[in-house]
Design goal:
By secondary structure, the chain is of the alpha+beta class. The protein has twelve helices and twelve strands. The chain is elongated. The two termini are 29 Å apart. The N terminus is likely disordered.
Length: 411
């Protein structure tokens, strides 16, 4: 920086800031607060957006489910179930269907703990449990990446209150990685233990299948078991040909309702709707955080404008004197923009420290990921730019003050 700039700009600039140090300090603190909140809010929004973007493993665009509630007496559940599934599978446009005990991302379902060794003192790994038949993988649109599917002979009938589990299971890749220290292929063919002692052989591994609970840290850990439920309340999970889901949802609902008057068909819901409802809290939180960021940024920008205009009104004679001494409009603008840059720079230094401190607390309290340094840098640069944009209009006003007007102005 040239000697002339140092003498004519930095000296008066620091003296002016010292005369109005409370205003400058308040703006710096406002910038610091905005950066602290903005960076962590964006970080939290990114975390939620990444969660919402996670693949469920299902063919969501072409799948739906419905509830089947029986109220008739002396109802033959086994026979009715097989007839219902046959009717659904034979409906033109349907790819496949299965009975299922729980729906991914729905918020309610079954979970168990699996161990690699039997025993009450062996630590287990939590997993969601889905009970399906041999059509389950195809009906859900899952990708089997190793092993084999269930056979019809594997499917058992689970009575209400039963604690027995079938001897075979298909697990998700994420569950296999957790149980076998990252080597998911090593899980194939292995025997794991459910409920501490019951042996279950892993006969297949699917690429992905999410649990019913999107906020669970083990949401990717799921297991399929070959069972059908002996229950008067059950669900059918149905997959259609591409583009025909919405067309077939009312058709199948009507067909099932009319085929048997001893039960009620309700809650016909697409998987896309279930995903939207599952993450509506995430979406609402992101909207609130975005609103907070915008409001804080606007408040900071208006604060900078107000401080700059106040400073200009107090220093019209000083500005006029500089103009009389030959300072150009650009030099006057540069003076106020540089002054704001100094205040903003002090604010972002404080804000960066605050952002890191707040993130450390969030990581320790809510088990979130550490803040990305790149995001912090982007936040710092963004607020410096906001500061320069905010002060540009007051600086332009100052640059247009003529020497004659300044000499008549107040000191």
């Amino acid at each position: 920086m040239s000697t002339l700039l140092t003498q004519l700009e930095l000296g008066p600039m620091f003296r002016a800031l010292m005369r109005n140090k409370i205003g400058a300090l308040l703006i710096a603190l406002q910038i610091a607060l905005t950066l602290t909140i903005m960076v962590n809010a964006i970080f939290m929004m990114q975390e939620r957006s990444q969660q919402m973007a996670r693949a469920s493993g299902l063919d969501e665009a072409n799948t739906f489910y419905l509830s089947n509630t029986v109220f008739a007496q002396n109802y033959n559940l086994k026979t009715a179930l097989q007839q219902d599934l046959q009717r659904i599978r034979q409906t033109p446009g349907v790819v496949d269907a299965t009975q299922i005990n729980a729906i991914p991302l729905s918020g309610g379902g079954w979970s168990m703990s699996l161990q690699t060794k039997a025993g009450d003192d062996i630590e287990g790994t939590g997993t969601a449990v889905y009970m399906v038949d041999e059509h389950g993988i195809n009906a859900m649109g899952l990708e089997l990446i190793a092993g084999e599917n269930f056979q019809n002979s594997d499917i058992g009938w689970r009575e209400e209150g039963s604690t027995k589990w079938p001897p075979k299971a298909i697990i998700s890749k994420a569950l296999a990685e957790t149980m076998f220290e990252g080597d998911w292929k090593n899980a194939l063919g292995k025997t794991v233990y459910i409920d501490n002692h019951q042996p279950v052989q892993v006969i297949g591994i699917i690429k992905a299948l999410q649990a019913p609970w999107n906020g669970w840290n083990g949401v990717e850990r799921s297991m399929l078991v070959p069972q059908q439920l002996d229950s008067k309340g059950s669900r059918f999970f149905i997959r259609t040909e591409p583009g025909r889901r919405d067309e077939l949802m009312p058709v199948i609902e009507k067909m099932l309702a009319e085929s048997d008057r001893g039960r009620i068909i309700r809650n016909v819901t697409s998987m896309e709707q279930t995903r939207d409802e599952s993450y509506q809290e995430h979406q609402a939180t992101n909207t609130i955080l975005l609103t907070v960021i915008i409001v804080l940024t606007l408040i900071t920008g208006f604060g900078i404008v107000g401080l700059a205009m106040f400073s200009i009104n107090r220093r019209t004679r000083q500005i006029g004197t500089r103009r009389a001494l030959g300072a150009s409009q650009w030099q006057v603008m540069r003076y106020f923009m540089l002054e704001n840059l100094l205040i903003s720079f002090a604010g972002v230094i404080l804000g960066a420290a605050g952002a890191i401190g707040l993130n450390i607390w969030l990581v320790a309290t809510f088990e979130m990921s550490p803040l990305s340094p790149l995001l912090l840098v982007i936040g710092v640069v963004a607020l410096l730019i906001v500061g320069q944009l905010a002060v540009s209009y007051p600086a332009l006003v100052a640059s247009k003050i003529s020497p004659a007007t300044a000499t008549r102005g107040r000191a």
